[in-house]
Amino acid sequence: MGRTVKALLVALLGSVVVVAGGTGAATAESGWWVPTSTPSPESEVNATGEPRRGTTPDGDVSGYIDAHTHMFMDLGMGGNAVCGSTFSEKGIADALKDCDRHGVSILENLTNEAAGRGILDRHDTVGWPTFKDWPTYSSFTHQQMYYKWVERAWRGGQRVMVNDMVSNPGLCPILGIVAGPNKYSCDDMDTVRRQIQATYDLQDFVDRQYGGAGKGWYRVVKTPEQARQVVADGKLAVVLGVEVSEPFGCKQVLGAPQCTKADIDAGLDELKGKGVASMFLCHKFDNALCGVRYDESTAGLLVNAGQFLTTGTWWNPKTCKEGEIADNTVIGGVLPSQIASVPGLPAVLPLYPKGPHCNPRGLTELGEYALRGMIKRNMIVELDHMSAKAAGRALDVLEAEAYPGAVSSHDWMAEPYMDRLYALGGFATQYGHTATEFADQWRETKPLRDKYGVAYGYGTDMNGFGGTASPPSDAAKISYPFTGRDGTVFDRQVTGERTWDYNAEGVPHYGLVPDWIESLRVLAGSAIVDDLAAGSESYLRTWGATTAFAPGANLARDAIASASSVERNLLTDLRPGRAIDGKASTRWASRWGQDDAWLQVEFLSARPVRKVTIEWEKAYARQYRVQTSLDGKTWRDVDVVGTGNGGLDTVTLDRPVSARFVRMQGVERATSYGYSIKELGVFS
């Protein structure tokens, strides 16, 4: 949710009448892809031609992927964030009806900068059938993902869509005041359950139009195998994700966590049981699991206010030290008077040190427990929105496990981590910018993707208060009608009395995603479209490797540990065996002042060694060697680490080495103490 979340919102933050054939362009063709009965009246799709089915000669699926959407934001944040529903059993006139109490909308006027309205100015609230003032690319408070508009994107070649359940506990109560009263609970997990149910309800709604269960184009999938079959059938595979600020109730209040490990286990089990494939551990606010990557500028000021309301703490950015990966720079200042009047908010935010800013809050103990819980359940970890410190630690854990299930879905992960993401086998998509910006970023990032053989995708963040593509430059304008990559012919999209033209309006709703892709083709040729069409295959490979993942056996658990020395401590046991007992709460420590101290493990017989992991305590090595031996006398350096920074180190060898002994040989200490290791792992 929300790449450039603006003004207030961002911050605080079966009785259908059916007739044969439907309306408008829907009557012009027939085939398996055309419904046998539709509500009447209904939006047009304005697409002609059979969607592509099957696979390539190599067995790969083909189709575009949107890895970050919010189809049911109208059911989030108390029900007052987005006006208009994704669908209605009563038909389009009910789903996209006039927005009650929305004529003078402080929320709309604060967030819709392009409209140029004053804070108390009115706008035309009528939806169906005229849609004079909404949806537009610049309005965040009106429905952009009506299901027929999503159908047009599917007809345009999209084959995978990740639908993230979303809400925000800071915005929800505020919207209950400025746009309320709220219709629904502000609890994040209640919202997740409500939106998941709505996703399945929409699948049933579409199925009825195509003759029964399983026959519609909108298919909710729980496994990559199901998704592959859906895409091969030419339909849209809908993947369930979660992006909320307080998953499992894991908020923090004045720094104190409000959830337990039992809450996390129960929550992950529930989500897994409902078919959720991926989730974010934190979003917008520092929670009990991790720190966030800040929003910048005015949006950041307002999101910071939302954090204060829900947690009692402001963001706490520090000036980054040399070598640290920065988060976005935060501003302090005076809140707009309309927001400062919210009970509990001071008028002035803290003053912050000079940027660049780093969030000192990383992945907490509970956050690491949740991360490892996701690995245990073979779920995809969304790294976007984590602070640079949290994302770095998460990548350390993923690398140590050789776990491929990592995704960056809409440009919110620090760019220096991208190589590590791809090296794991992960996948990334780019935010749905204007065509020119998207094409430029595609060119800039293509060499890295080519290095790993990974294709491309987009994350529109539709309905997520991040903004959609504005009208294109002259060089990116398209001609109507146009033919998509799969041969489908598109004319301007029509809903009711309203006709949308991409050249004049950009992407006001999801139905113009095919027009935006045509704009990309105009700018960058068929290469960018082909790269995007391979995106579904790349994503499903990552998801498939995630569900197939099984942790390797840690050879060190059955080994004998020894060391050059042991620190004497009257309060705890620091002997070598403590570093291979599987407990992060225990450790080995060498005697103080020894640069050449070592820790080693011995197996009963020679074993192939491919990877060594070292979880350092605060007393870590700046320089050290990883060594192997068959006899404990002759040692071979298999890796030399010269810039150690503590934390969790993973040394992966190019090929397995036969060894009976594996050793960490210290060269230079980073502290005045000795060396201290929580866990040493050795893997085949």
TrEMBL record:
Keywords in alphabetical order: Signal
Region (Disordered): 29-60
Domain F5/8 type C: residue ranges: 548-684
Parts of the chain that traverse the membrane: none
Residues of the signal peptide: 1-20
Composition bias, Polar residues: 35-46
PROSITE patterns: FA58C_3
Entries under Pfam families matching the protein: F5_F8_type_C
InterPro entries: FA58C, Galactose-bd-like_sf, Metal_Hydrolase
Highest taxon of source: Bacteria
SUPFAM superfamilies from the UniProt entry: Galactose-binding domain-like, Metallo-dependent hydrolases
Protein name: F5/8 type C domain-containing protein
Organism of this sequence: Aeromicrobium flavum
